[in-house]
Write a structure and sequence with these properties.
Elements (H helix, E strand, L loop, with lengths): L4 E9 L10 E9 L4 E5 L6 H12 L5 E4 L3 H11 L6 E3 H9 L4 H8 L15 H9 L4 H15 L12 H27 L3 H12 L10 H36 L1
Parallel strand pairs: 1-4, 4-5
Antiparallel strand pairs: 1-2, 2-3
C-alpha cells in the first residue's frame, strides 16, 4: 500500500446502529493502480486489533489518498469496528458534484481558500453505476446482472462476504466496485485539477467522511436519512406540480 493513491471499498453490515444487529466489516477491497490489482482483505476472519495494526496507519494517513464512492458509511464502520479515523479521502461523489454543479461553487471556493465546514450542504448523491456510465461509458450487461443478483441478496439480509471461501461471483462483485471507483476517479480527476479544486475536494471529502459519526447535533446516519426523505418528497412534489402545470397548458393549447 505504498502507492500514493488507491481506491477503497468495504463490504459487510456497515451500520453499527442498525436495528437488525450483526454489525461488522466482512471485506476491505483496495485497488492498487500501479499493478492493476484489487486486494480482497477478509477482515471477517481477523481480530480487530490485527486489522488496526495492519491497516490503521494507512487508512488514517493524509499522505496516502484513498478514493471512495460515498465514504460516509465506510468511514463510520471503520471507526466503530476498529477505532480507525479514515483520513486522506477523495470521494468521487464530491468530485462529481464539483464538476456537475450538484454542490454550489461557493462551497468549493471556501474549501479551496482553506475554510473547513463542519457539514456539507445537502445534495443528492449519484451512485457508482451511474457515475461509471456517465464518466467512463461503462455499461456492462453482465456486471449489471451481477449487481442485481447481489442487490437481492443484500435485501434478503444475507452476508455473502462473511465466510471463506468467497464464491467467484462474490469476489467479482467486490473487486468490480473497487475497480469502478478508480475508473471514475481517473476520468474525473483531470477536470478537478483543471479547475484547481484538488485541495477543496480533499477537504470536503474528509468532512464528508465524518458526517455519519460527527453529525452536528447528533443523529448521524439517521439525521441524514431524514433529510434525504424530506428532500425526495419535496422534489417529487415539485415534479408533480410541474407536470400538472404542463398538462393544463397542453389542454389549453389543444382547446384553442
Amino acid at each position: 500500500l505504498a502507492n500514493p493513491v488507491c481506491a477503497l471499498d468495504l463490504e459487510g453490515n456497515l451500520d453499527p446502529g442498525g436495528d437488525g444487529g450483526g454489525f461488522g466489516v466482512d471485506l476491505i477491497q483496495v485497488y492498487v493502480p500501479s499493478v492493476d490489482l484489487v486486494l480482497l482483505i477478509h477482515t471477517g476472519a481477523l481480530a480487530a486489533a490485527a486489522v488496526q495494526r495492519a491497516l490503521g496507519p494507512w487508512l488514517s494517513s493524509r499522505e496516502h489518498l484513498k478514493v471512495l464512492c460515498d465514504c460516509r458509511a465506510d468511514a463510520e464502520a471503520l471507526h466503530a469496528a476498529y477505532g480507525i479515523t479514515l483520513a486522506g479521502v477523495v470521494d468521487v461523489q464530491i468530485s462529481h458534484a464539483a464538476i456537475s454543479g450538484d454542490l454550489p461553487p461557493e462551497v468549493f471556493a471556501t474549501a479551496a481558500a482553506g475554510g473547513v465546514a463542519h457539514q456539507l450542504p445537502f445534495f443528492f448523491p449519484t451512485g457508482l453505476s451511474r457515475l461509471a456510465s456517465k464518466w467512463c461509458g461503462i455499461a456492462d450487461t453482465a456486471l449489471a446482472e451481477l449487481k442485481a443478483q447481489f442487490g437481492a441478496v443484500f435485501n434478503a439480509g444475507e452476508r455473502p462476504f462473511a465466510a471463506l471461501p468467497l464464491s467467484a461471483a462474490a469476489a467479482a462483485y467486490a473487486a468490480s466496485d473497487a475497480w469502478h471507483i478508480w475508473a471514475v476517479h481517473a476520468a474525473l480527476w483531470p477536470a478537478v485539477t483543471q479547475r484547481a479544486l484538488e485541495g477543496a475536494v480533499r477537504r470536503l471529502s474528509d468532512v464528508r467522511a465524518a458526517e455519519f459519526r460527527e453529525f452536528p447535533g447528533g443523529g448521524g446516519r439517521e439525521a441524514w436519512e431524514e433529510k434525504y426523505k424530506a428532500a425526495r418528497a419535496e422534489r417529487a412534489a415539485a415534479e408533480a406540480a410541474r407536470g400538472k402545470s404542463g398538462g393544463r397548458g397542453a389542454d389549453k393549447r389543444a382547446a384553442q
